[in-house]
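step 3/5: co-fold with zinc ion
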Amino acid sequence: MKNYYDILGVKKGANEDEIKSAFRKLAHKYHPDKKGGDETKFKEVSEAYSVLSDKKKRAEYDTYGKTFAGGSPHGQGFGGFDFSNFQGFQGNFQEFDLGDIFGEFFGGGGFSAGQRRGRDISIDIELAFRESIFGTERNVLIAKVGMCDTCGGSGAKKGTKMTACTGCNGKGEMRETRNSLFGSFTTTRQCPKCHGRGQVPESPCETCRGEGVARRQEEIQIVVPAGVSDGEMIRMPGRGEAAAGGSAGDLYVKLHVKKDSDFTRDGNNLTISLPIKLSDALLGGEYHVRTLDGDETIDVPAGVTHGEVVRIRGKGVPHGRNTRGDLMVRIDIQFPKKLSAKARELIEKLRGEGL
Ligand SMILES: [Zn+2]
Ligand SMILES: [Zn+2]
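step 4/5: write tokens
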């Protein structure tokens, strides 16, 4: 597990200013546009800062060692630090003076290093308890920016050619040197006219106006594996929105598992309550137990106590390869509220026996 405090090189009790200043120093040092920069480190530092600079996330991290921010990790700003979502990133850092660091790096919100990338999308799906245990499949219809079907993404009208882009002389990118507080940087910018392709359609596709991408409905099949928990996220790389001349974003599927009236889950084990008669508790008896795989018969041993657990192996939550947790059957002895005259008489006799 990552230690965000170590990454930023601050003490656990560091205040907001110390965290901010450590981040600025390191962001500057590792920025990928800089000579000697390190994109991996930069992302790591940015991720650490995104958590420790947010009171709520920091408290979660301190308590649980992770954060539970809802929605897409990208939508929240970080998680995977996505350069193309720079607008979203800015949104989370209003208290942080972007003008002095990022404004220069990114040319005021423009996107410099690397390729354009489509937006990440996040959706929520609700699962029945049983589906969360055994896994399931869902087909969902998502309205998103996808590759244009008419032109297959080329942006060209059918039967027409592509020509070299005049904006970048067919190179697809432009170099820019900027002076900043931290020295001068040469950044490579994707050509905005051709979106980095170096070519533009001679006659643009009518559906997408030559962009190669268009907003449309897409049916996506989501395979939910067995044993998922409430709140878990499935990431589907490349199934987010398409970007003209770039790679597609990711799709994040957040799972919401409905509660079951009988079963509760504890790790890989399931628990169910089994009401039994008082006489069976004393003498033992056979009971049918509802499992997720059908009914099972169990022997309740004589002298069982209230709350005792009888374990049925392998009827719990699937995990790993061919392994499953257990079903824990909690004995619930039904003590009679009222006694018939006859029962009363018999129990009086039991009392006479010293029971
Ligand atoms: Zn098109
Ligand atoms: Zn161009």
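step 5/5: annotate
The domain at 264-352 is CATH 2.60.260.20 (HSP40/DNAj peptide-binding domain).
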